[in-house]
Amino acid sequence: MKRFSFPKSKRLVSNQQFRAVLAHRRCRSDGLLALYVAKNDCGHSRLGVSVGKAHGNAVVRNRLKRLLREAFRQSQDQIPQGFDYILMFDSRRRSGKPPTFEQVKTSFLRLLQGLK
User: Fold this and answer.
1) Torsion-angle region of residue 33: left (phi > 0), alpha (psi -120 to 50) or beta?
2) Is 1 in a helix, a strand, or coil?
3) Which one, of 109, 88, 114, 93, lies nearest residue 36 by Cα?
4) How far, rounded to the nearest angstrom, does the alpha carbon of residue 60 sit from its chain's CA centroid?
5) CA within 13 Å, CB half, 14
6) Hey, what CATH topology would domain 10-115 get?
7) Residue 5 region, left (φ>0) first, then alpha (ψ -120 to 50), else beta?
8) Closest Cα to residue 102, out of 76, 80, 75?
9) What pTM was computed for the model?
10) How do residues 30-42 score in pLDDT, each as one tens digit?
11) First and final CA of the chain: distance in angstroms?
């Protein structure tokens, strides 16, 4: 299996970077995740994650963010390059049981297929 990393250069870190992606208003959602996309000039894909307080306390939100980052990291060979992505859990999702890693990864790849 090919090893992938997730260095700081592949992350969206500033509020300005997040706003730039959200301003493009290119979004897809499948009931579990919402994916926002904007073209970048970096030549590689970058990821930002956001999980609102409605999804649980800090421990739960950090676990959900780790799931999103790991789905991105393991799928780098299937992700179109040259785009910025923001992944969020859909605000309509309110089930008490957290999603599994496989559910998150499958949802993310399904949303990427819908963008092509």
Assistant:
1) beta
2) coil
3) 88
4) 16
5) 4
6) Ribosomal Protein S5; domain 2 (3.30.230)
7) beta
8) 75
9) 0.85
10) 888 999 999 988 8
11) 26
